[in-house]
Amino acid sequence: MDDGAELWAAVRLTVELAVVTTLVLLVIGTPIAWWLARSRAAWKEAVAAVVALPLVLPPTVLGFYALILLGPDGPGGWVAGLFGGRSLAFTFEGLVIGSVLYSLPFVVQPIRNAFESFGPRPLEVAATLRAGPRDAFWSVAVPLARPGFVTGAVLGFAHTVGEFGVVLMIGGGIPGETKVLSVAIYDYVETLQWTKAHMLAGGMLVFAFAVILGMLVLEKRLARRLR
Amino acid sequence: MTGCGRRRLGQTLLALLLLGAASVGWAAEARLAIAANFTAAAREIVAAFEAATGHRVVASFGSTGALYTQITQRAPYHVFLAADQVRPALAEREGLAVPGTRFTYATGRLVLFSREPDLVTGEATLRAGTFTKLAVANPITAPYGAAAVEVLRALGIYQTVERRLVLGTNIAQTYQFVETGNAELGLVAASQVAERAGGSRWLVPQSLHSVIAQDAVLLTIGAENPAAVAFLAFLRSGPARAVIARHGYAVAE
Predict the structure, then answer these.
(1) What is the mean pLDDT of chain A?
(2) Which one of A33, B11, B228, B244 is CB 3.0 to 4.6 Å from A112, fit for a cystine?
(3) Hey, is the C-beta of B11 within 8 angstroms of any chain A C-beta?
(4) Does B123 map to a domain?
């Protein structure tokens, strides 16, 4: 594979990983956030703490557990066995699982905050207008929580793009399959190919700035419109 | 005692302390940058060295490429134990190492290893190609990875197994892939499995790859450090060489 192709393979793979991870996170993160925002269970903060763990844990801890869970000694090996493999490590699917664990709090937290911010009142009003719980959720709660969804999706996407430790530990550096941008940069730095490292690292810097700025602007605009 | 006198006393004590630390050689501390494959042997040698000399050692482990990158950025290492000869020589040429202090402390051997008993029977295991993943170290950064690729090329199977290779960033991570079973096979350093019972292994003949001569060198930052100088001398000594040999390396005469 020539150099340009390798750079592009890393960029494309990273974007694919971030897109898939964000979609998965929205699907599993929304019900978690909803439950955390609405439940009166005494132990819900314990669940919230579990969700928030990746904020505190070093990626090496997640990477280490992921390596074992994805492998032949863990459930990942069993799942891989169904498809004739022996491990989910070194696969795109394995990276998605690792990334979902790693970015979960970045998606759940903003959505939960958004669900909490408008309180029970709008839903009670919806109920008096004979909206069922499902209808109220989709036509009242979700639109009201839109800023939270936007923030969560952007943060989940960006955080996955910026992921390094977990993918390094479970990826195996396969070009086009598990060798994402951050790992490619690491390789270029290690092998003293600093021109390429600069290209990718500079690109990441610009990307990160654009994402954060865009999110701040968008958030403000959405909040204004809802008010 | 006046305030001034007390201050003078304090200054004298401080000066004595600094003088003492500088003149007493045995109180020195050496910082070592060590190639990951040498981890187990290094720990033993460092312990023996500290016990024998009273010097203290702080060791950092990583891939030779990563450590060398750090050294080019003036990382505070006194001694560099690489997994190859290229980077210590490069360090010398770049003025980062003391000329004439370079020597080969160990010659590495590659081993094809699996934690599953009976899986590895020899060269045939690689040739049969019935495995899903073969772990090797990154050939660009890790000398053991480069040697592993040479072996695959020498056997004429590189093209067919290329897509099944997974790369560890250094030989330690490569072994970790094999030990956790995520890759059923790996070309790792013999030193890593020297003390591990079980599994199955094939010691790759040295004729299949270029010699993995591992060089040590005194870095410029450590030129005046008595502990660093003493450690390199200790590394050449009989007891250290015995440890190195026991860990699966060939030791030059």
Answers:
(1) 90
(2) A33
(3) no
(4) yes
Q: Is the pLDDT of residue B23 over 50?
A: no
Please report whether residue B253 resides in a domain. no
Element (H, E) at B42: helix B39-53
Q: Tell me which architecture the domain covering A3-226 has in CATH.
A: Orthogonal Bundle (1.10)
Q: Which pLDDT value is given to residue B16?
A: 52
User: Is some CB atom of chain A closer than 8 A to the CB atom of B169?
Assistant: yes
In percent, the amount of chain A with pLDDT more than 90 equals 57
Q: In angstroms, what separates the C-alpha of A47 from chain B's closest C-alpha?
A: 29
Q: What is the pLDDT of residue B15?
A: 57
- pTM for this one? 0.80
B183, A171 contact by CB (below 8 A)? no
The reply to whether residue A191 touches residue B141, judged by beta carbons under 8 angstroms, is: yes
Any B CB within 8 A of A42 CB: no
pLDDT digit string, tens, across residues B144-159: 999 999 999 999 999 9
On whether the CB atoms of residues B186 and B177 are closer than 8 A, the answer is yes
Cβ-defined contact of B180 to A191 (cutoff 8 Å): no
**Residue appearing with tokens 């997994």:** B83
B208: DSSP letter? G
Q: Note whether B126 and B199 are same-domain residues.
A: yes
Total structural domains within chain B: 2
Judge if B103 and B164 occupy the same domain.
Answer: no
Of A72, A172, A189, the CB nearest to B181: A72
B116 and B187 co-located in one domain: yes
Mean pLDDT along residues A36-40: 92
In-domain check, residue B79:
yes
Average pLDDT, chain B: 89
A86 contacts B133? CB cut-off 8 A:
yes
Q: A 122-161 residues with CB below 8 A of B?
A: none
Say how many C-beta atoms besides its own lie within 10 A of residue B147's C-beta: 26
Contact list, B182 vs chain A (CB under 8 Å): 67, 70-72, 86-87, 89-90, 170
Domain that holds residue B154: 109-208
Contacts of A170 in chain B (CB under 8 A): 182
Sketch the domain layout of chain A as residue ranges.
3-226
Strand order in the sheet with B110-114: B165-168, B134-137, B185-189, B110-114, B200-203
- Structure confidence at residue B22 as a pLDDT band (50, 70, 90): very low
pLDDT at A86: 83
* Torsion angle of the four alpha carbons A85, A88, A91, A95, in this order, in degrees rounded to the nearest 10: 170
